[in-house]
Amino acid sequence: MVVNSENIDNREASTQPIASPLEGESSRDAIRRSQRIASQLHQLIAASITVVGLRHESDILVNLASSAQRVFDADVAVLTLESGSVAPLRGVARRGQAARCVGPDEFSDDVPVARTGVTAPWEDGPWLAAPMLERRDRARGLLAVRRNGGQFQDEDREVLTLLAQMASTSLAATELSRGVESRETRLRILVDTAPAGIVEVDLAGHVLWWNRSASKILGWPPHDDAVTIEPRFPASAAAELTSLWDEVRGGTPSGRDLVDVEIKGRRRHLSTSAALLPSPESEASSILMLVDDVTDHRRLKEEVRHAQQMEIRGRVASSVAHDFNNLLTLISGYAEILAKDFHEDSRSLEMVKDIQATASRASMITAQLQTIGRTQSLEPVVLDPVAVMASNAEVLERIVGVDIEPIWSLSAGAGTIRVDAGQFEQMLLNLAINARDAMPSGGQLRIAVDTVAVDRARSIDLIVDEGDYVRITVADTGVGMDSDTLQHCFDPFFTTKGPFKGTGLGLAAAQRLVESSGGSITCRSQPGVGTTFEILFPKSGDTAAEAFDAPVVERPRGSATVLVADDDTDLRSLMVQVLGRNGYRVLEAETGELAL
Which of 268, 239, 273 is nearest to 256 (CA)? Predict the structure, then answer.
């Protein structure tokens, strides 16, 4: 049997599979799809790396819109931001054009809008859109691409979703970063402008950081990166601060009052508190301190305490002055009766006049005591200080004596003031006497009156209102006062004249008069140079009342009946005698009830 080998070969060949043209085409599409997906993923990675360094929403929108246009080879890619501080905003990338950020009114294409509750991509005509999810059910915007004449595949949806998630994450990170920076800025400003000093030291007490108030309180330079020399706490506070830090390192917040700390040549009182400052690893790495300058606060407390003491002393003095004034009334009254009885006995009459003069001086002291105690009411009138001084010039020059040269500088147009006339003259008299006593070997006494304007800054220092003031200056070239004496010169009962030479009431009464009239009185003095008192009274726009002399008339003798009621037996007896000597019939009673 002969076998045809050619036939056998043909049969074997006919049994081999023949490749279909459709199968070859499908393989090529799969390869191209894989290459396109790889290219898209590569561009996604590049976009994610680029967007990490962006800090502004507009930059993120532009960059990711441009990335989406390249990834999908789209005609247009749009990334919209519809919520947040800078919304609404859109990043637009067109084929062949540079991407840019525009407002919604500048983009005219029919861009899809985010759909409520939709979390998956969707097609809207030629557009493929994916939401930028802020939360599971809320979108902050969307990413949409348009490709005319081309269809979108399932993998395109997945890639667009990744890009939308990347955009949402980047925008959220930017918003969070801005919030953190804003809070840090507010905290930094708050700390730096805090009125109390804030200082951070390490566990060994070395200064690490301090705020602006600490620089002012402790005399340190402002803190910045250029500071290379570590500031030091005052040496006089080192022991107290070391003890404070030891307590704080033990885990207990603590505080100290640092008294008489020398800072830049000045003695200050500081209040400090401290606590451990934990690090992010929850381990204490430094100590945070609060430092406050309480010098002015302590001084104010001392001044309030001193004012309360002076108020008590003034009330006691006023009460004593009231009783003492009653006794002086008796002395003066009986002295006047004796003066009438001794009108022919010149020697006895002279002694009676001495009694009256002494009682008059004593009455002036009681008036000052009542002024200090604020029981004597003021009767302010409008007067011209220049005219008052001119009328009293001769008296003042006699008081200061021939060894002291008075220098007058009175401005006629200074204006008028409203003040109690009697106490104003008494104030001038007291200032002249003080100047005389400060110049035992002679000197110069300058008395000036002029006008001065007080601005806002000076009104705060003097505790007066802004405006025009009449200034009265009384300056001497005497022995002067040191700082301690100057600090207490207006205190009631404070005097440097020694026993039985001064009451310490003149300047206190002057201060009360001036301040009650809305003005101020200040004193400047230097040992060996002299003392200057500057008095400011508010300038009054009224015209001063003209002084007139009351006519001297002969006192008529009475013939009526007078009822005298007083619980002070001595005063009642005096009034009965005086009225009886003047022709009156007097009925007396101890109380008002008995008088009725």
Answer: 273
The per-residue pLDDT for range 104-124, each reduced to its tens digit, is 677 666 788 878 878 888 888
Report the pLDDT value the prediction gives residue 558, as an integer from 0 to 100.
Answer: 64
* pLDDT at residue 286 is higher than 50: yes
143 shares its domain with 45: yes
| 3-state per-residue secondary structure call for 280-314 | CCCCEEEEEEEEEECHHHHHHHHHHHHHHHHHHHH
Going by C-alpha positions, the residue among 493, 388, 407, 481 that lies closest to residue 437 is 481
State the residue range of the domain holding 517: 380-538
Length of the chain: 596
- Total domain count for the chain? 5
Matching residue, tokens 């409008």:
382
| Interacting residues of 499 by C-beta distance below 8 A, sequence separation 6+ | none
Q: HSE-up of 158 (CA within 13 Å, CB side)?
A: 6
CA distance linking residue 415 with residue 405, whole number of Å: 26
In a domain, 12, yes or no: no
pLDDT in tens, 353-398: 878 777 776 776 676 666 555 545 678 899 999 998 988 888 788 8
What are the angstrom distances between the C-alpha of 423 and each of 255, 364, 429, 445, 529? 52, 10, 10, 21, 29
Name, in order, each residue with C-beta under 8 angstroms of 320's C-beta and a sequence gap of 6 or more: 369
- Asked if residues 276 and 249 have their Cβ atoms less than 8 Å apart, the reply is yes
**304 CB neighbour count, 10 Å cutoff:** 10
Q: Quick one: pLDDT at residue 497?
A: 65
Distance CA 135, CA 175 (A): 15
191-218 tens-digit pLDDT = 888 889 999 999 888 998 899 899 889 8
Residues 364 and 395 in one domain: no
Looking only at the bridges linking them, the beta strands covering 404-410 and 443-454 are parallel
Residue 486 has pLDDT above 90, yes or no: no
The tokens for 116 are 């409520």
Contacts for 231 with CB less than 8 Å, ≥ 6 apart = 207, 210, 218, 220, 221
Instruction: Provide the edge-to-edge strand list for the sheet that holds 89-94.
Output: 100-102, 89-94, 76-81, 138-146, 127-135, 122-124
pLDDT confidence tier of residue 219, bands split at 50, 70 and 90 = confident
Question: Is residue 291 scored above 90 in pLDDT?
Answer: yes
pLDDT higher than 50, residue 67 = yes
Q: What is the pLDDT of residue 39?
A: 64
Q: What digits encode the pLDDT tens for the residues 151-181? A: 787 788 888 888 888 888 888 888 888 888 8
Asked if 157 and 70 touch (Cβ cutoff 8 Å), the reply is no
Question: Any alpha helices (H) in 401-550, and if so which ranges?
Answer: 421-438, 456-462, 483-487, 506-516
CA-CA distance, 319 to 311, in Å (whole number)? 12
Residue type for position 36: R
In this structure, the answer to whether residues 360 and 389 fall within a common structural domain is no
Q: Does residue 249 fall inside a structural domain? A: yes
Q: Is residue 548's pLDDT more than 70?
A: no
Q: Residue 26 domain-assigned? A: no
